[in-house]
Amino acid sequence: MLFLTFLGLSAISAVQSAGVPKTKCYQGSAEDKKEVACDEGVTQCTKTNAEAGLGVLSVSTTIYGCSLLTTEKPVGCTKEDKSSDTKVELAGIDLNQAKPKVEICICTGSLCNSAPSNRFSFTMAFSCFLIACLKFSF
Fold it and tell me: 9, 38, 53, 131: which could form a disulfide with 58 (CB 3.0–4.6 Å)?
């Protein structure tokens, strides 16, 4: 009887855990991102923007992926300016002037890391413009 009870409970547990879908995130670069299922227990996605400029030259990239942690971090974006105290030169050019900037965004939910990191979008701008036009026309 005890054996049947444990067998029944393990079957219920297996069915319940099978019904929980894995979190999906976009993974890859901005030019080549694809949907992937994250590891078990991961519920957050990340989007990392990195940019560096030296004079008129500038380089930027965006990387998408699943969070590496199973513990939840606060949702939102953090910006950091990375600079080094160590002098780095290449062909007589001081590379510390590049002042790389990194923005890491964390979101919760499937495929949540596709949104632009800036909060102002074309849709919002058009909506505000349309409301202003309607207000003055009536």
Answer: 53
Q: How do residues 18-52 score in pLDDT, each as one tens digit?
A: 556 789 999 999 888 999 999 999 999 999 998 88
- Can you state the percent helix, strand and coil of the chain, rounding each to 5? 30, 35, 35
Query: 62 and 30 in contact (C-beta within 8 Å)?
Result: yes
The tokens 């991961």 sit on which residue? 42
Query: In 55-137, where do the E strands start and end?
Result: 57-66, 76-81, 89-90, 93-94, 101-108
Within a domain: residue 54? Answer: yes
Which whole-number Å values give the CA distances from 84 to 75, 79, 91, 111, 134, in the listed order?
28, 16, 18, 34, 52
Give the number of domains in the chain. 1
Please write the tens of the pLDDT for every residue from 107-116: 998 899 886 6
